[in-house]
Write a structure and sequence with these properties.
The chain has helices spanning 11-29, 34-41, 45-58, 76-88, 102-113, 119-128, 145-159. With 179 residues, it is an all-alpha fold. The two termini are 45 Å apart.
């Protein structure tokens, strides 16, 4: 069974998989061969081989689930401290503006707790603890709507990449129609 990108199994899927392993143990104990067990349980022979090896080395406990591999690396006390530090703002931690980015929070976690998270892992941690992305509640005072409209009408058409023709092209670098 292949796991989805960034996936693994949910708790329910892990329980189902563990039940299959325990059924395989019953087959092992009755002396059946791997090639007979695999089609009976609708799994690959390689999985049966792996489970049999784990069963030989650790008995029934060897085939039981080890639990979710994605256990949180910060405990509740550390998360509470992180929240206090985030409320202090980026300026208090040496950044030049008041924007918290995921990369900055990742860096802050590393500095405070010596734990490394990915940017995606940082987002999941924050979401799990009730944080969300922010959007300003009002427009900046400095915003000039007239200047924005002029930029959209005059500058944007010049800098926007022109679209390619919809006609057939060629992959040859020497033919003019391929450019």
């Amino acid at each position: 069974m292949r796991y989805a990108q960034g996936g693994g199994l949910t708790d329910a899927e892990r329980t189902t998989r563990e039940r299959l392993r325990l059924q395989a143990v019953e087959h092992f104990e009755s002396g059946q061969k791997n090639a007979e067990i695999a089609p009976a349980l609708r799994i690959s022979v390689r999985s049966v081989e792996r489970w049999r090896r784990a069963w030989r080395e650790g008995g029934e406990a060897g085939v039981l689930s080890k639990g979710s591999p994605g256990r949180p690396r910060l405990n509740e006390v550390q998360v509470a401290r992180l929240e206090r530090e985030l409320e202090r703002g980026p300026l208090a931690h040496g950044w030049t503006d008041q924007r918290w980015t995921l990369a900055r929070i990742k860096t802050l976690i590393g500095r405070l707790f010596h734990v490394s998270y990915t940017v995606e892992g940082t987002w999941r941690l924050l979401k799990r603890h009730g944080w969300s992305w922010q959007q300003p509640t009002r427009r900046a005072i400095e915003r000039d709507d007239d200047a924005v409209e002029v930029w959209k009408k005059q500058t944007w058409p010049r800098v926007r990449a022109s679209r390619r023709s919809a006609g057939p092209g060629s992959s040859s670098k020497t033919r003019p129609g391929s450019r």
